[in-house]
Amino acid sequence: MSGTSSVGQGSVYEAGDQRNYKNSELNDAERYKEGKVNSHKANDSKDERSIANKLAREGKRQNEPEAESQETKESKKDPTLPARNHGNEPSKGAKIDAELQAEEEAELKRKGKA
Questions:
Q1: Biggest alpha carbon–alpha carbon distance for the chain
Q2: What is the pLDDT of residue 31?
Q3: Which of 13, 20, 41, 53 could form a disulfide with 49 if both were Cys (CB 3.0 to 4.6 A apart)?
């Protein structure tokens, strides 16, 4: 009957990729034999990992050190350094942070703890 229709193309009405596979064929598919590397993202809300798997992953992450970039390490020493490294004037907040940091270091040296 679909051959006599004058609406749309004939391929619209044909089965195309809509096939009914046997269960034995589905289980032998290659996609079930191996998982993809890094296919699960820790922050993906639509990831369907079980709660137990998520908890196990977080338990492993607690033992791993967090990787910090060189810029992050430098900014902890001098808050104005990242801006100056990029050729910009440090922000007002970074300048205040640098002043506070210097005051705290001076106070610690005065107390003899540093």
A1: 96
A2: 56
A3: 53
Supply 14's token pair: 């044909």
> Which helix or strand (DSSP H or E) is residue 71 part of?
helix 70-77
Percent composition of the chain: helix, strand, coil (DSSP 3-state, to 5): 55, 0, 45
Encoding tokens for residue 110?
Answer: 């005065």
- How many CA atoms within 13 Å lie on the side-chain side of 46? 1
Q: Please, which pLDDT band fits residue 1 given cuts at 50, 70 and 90?
A: low
CA–CA dist 82, 71 (Å, integer):
7
Tokens of 13: 């009405």
Long-range contacts of 88-94 (CB under 8 A, 24+ apart): none
